[in-house]
Specification:
By secondary structure, the protein is of the alpha+beta class. The chain is built from 6 helices and 5 strands, in the order αββββααβααα. The strands form 2 sheets. Strands 1-2-3 form a 3-stranded antiparallel β-sheet, covered by helices on one side. A hairpin with a 6-residue loop joins strand 2 and strand 3. Helix 5 packs across helix 6. The protein is globular and about 50 Å long. The protein starts with a helix and ends with a helix.
């Protein structure tokens, strides 16, 4: 499945420079304010190891366990490429998250928890994916905290 990487990088990076002769479609460099950690990460196309990844907020593995196997091939492709479900993040944190759901992993940046939980729910609702009892409990705890802090957690 081909992910529209350039569009997500354009959306999520600042100080973006593009590769010449690509009509602005290929991001060459930029700066990421990693929502998962709160750290600033420099992005450079072709950098090895890649310090910036595109994360599926609802991972492909988690989605498969919770209903994506019942989606058509087109729906699964849409899910995998949906900008709502894609987020530029730091590679190390993305690797740590792996296929975890909100019951087993939350971003180290507690200030992003409300946004992360809301995005999880939006994506799962859009694609009619399930939420386990443990996930619901974790999301309820987060949203209770969001209400007390005015949505900043």
């Amino acid at each position: 499945m081909q992910i529209a990487q350039g569009g997500i990088l354009h959306r999520d990076l600042t100080a973006v420079t593009v590769k010449p002769a690509t009509r602005g479609c290929v991001v060459a460099a930029g700066q990421l304010a990693d929502p998962y950690t709160g750290q600033s990460i420099s992005y450079r196309r072709g950098q090895s190891p890649a310090l910036v990844n595109l994360d599926h907020v609802v991972s492909l593995g988690d989605s498969w366990q919770k209903g994506a196997q019942q989606l058509s091939a087109d729906q699964r492709r849409n899910f995998a490429n949906d900008p709502l479900n894609l987020l530029a993040v730091g590679q190390k944190t993305n690797a740590a998250k792996s296929d975890s759901d909100a019951a087993t992993w939350l971003p180290p940046n507690r200030g992003f928890w409300c946004v992360y939980a809301a995005r999880q729910i939006q994506v799962k609702a859009k694609y009619h994916l399930w939420v386990t009892t443990a996930e619901k409990a974790a999301l309820d705890r987060i949203f209770t905290s969001c209400t007390r802090t005015g949505g900043t957690r």
